[in-house]
Structure formats: structure tokens, C-alpha cells
Amino acid sequence: MTDKTAIRDAATVIVLRDRHTAPKVLMGQRGANAAFMPSKFVFPGGAVDTADGEISLSGQISPLCQSRLCEDVDENRCHALSVAAVRELWEETGLILGTAGAWQAPNADWAEFAATGHQPDATALQFVFRAITPPGRPRRFDARFFFVDAAALVGDLDDFSRASDELSHLQWIP
Predict the structure, then answer these.
(1) Which residues of the chain carry a pLDDT beneath 70?
(2) Which of 35, 77, 103, 105: disulfide with 114, CB 3.0–4.6 Å?
(3) What is the distance of C-alpha 151 from the center of its chain?
């Protein structure tokens, strides 16, 4: 029997804080009724949306990371993965990876982000690795994991008030 579950591209962000003194990573708990990894603590992330490829970034990931990220996909998909990483971090934590700037006409997925007065910026993202969900799972992802130092984020690193309800118990884990 073959697994016919479609594999979706996804972006996950490992946020590291206080890397030189008392390193901590940001994690949150998925809901008990989630189809993928219910009740597990995870890094912020999720599937690439169709519109992610149409969003402009104020800064791109480094050329080295870009070349590694694009090894198995085209440049447009690489761009969408970088955008998805910034968007998912925002949606799931309320933390901004961006630079000050105004938007012309943000789509609905980016309206709240745009309202903060920032444009998405992938400059601080570093591509780390790729993981594909094994066959037999209810949902499968071809996830690209990115690292970002929390110093690159805008705002209070302990304020998750703008986060969606996709992750609960957001916290910095030593």
C-alpha cells in the first residue's frame, strides 16, 4: 500500500535567545485536537501559503543559505519558504522579523503585521536543515528549518499578546 498523503512545503523557525549567557529556544504547545503533532511542544512554523510567493521581503536570506535552500526547489519556492518563516513566526508568536516600512496594500494574511509598521525581512534567517514527515502520518510536510537569533526580532521578546491561538504555553526553554 502506498501513502497518498500530499506532502506540503513548510517553514519552521528556531529562535535562540541569550545565546552567549543562558541560551533558550522559543517553543509552544500544539492543541490536543491538532491533526499534526497534537499536544506536542514545537518550534513556530507551518505550511507555505499560496500567497507567500507574492509577498516582497525588505531583505533576503544570505546567498549561502539561499543556495542551500534552493538545492531541490526553484527560486520562487525558496522565496515563498522564507516568507512563510517570517509569517508563521508572526502568526504563532506575535514576534516581528522585519524592518520599519509601510505597505501599499497588504493581503489579509499580512494586514496585522503591516499594521505594526514593518515589512517582512528574511536577512537574519539562516537555513539549517530539511525534514520530511514520514509516510503514514495524517499530514506530511517537507519542512525547512531556519534559525534566527532573537536579537533580530522587533519588540518585547516576552510579549506574546499578538500571537494566534495555534500554539499555547509559548515559552523560552533553556
Answers:
(1) 1-4
(2) 103
(3) 16
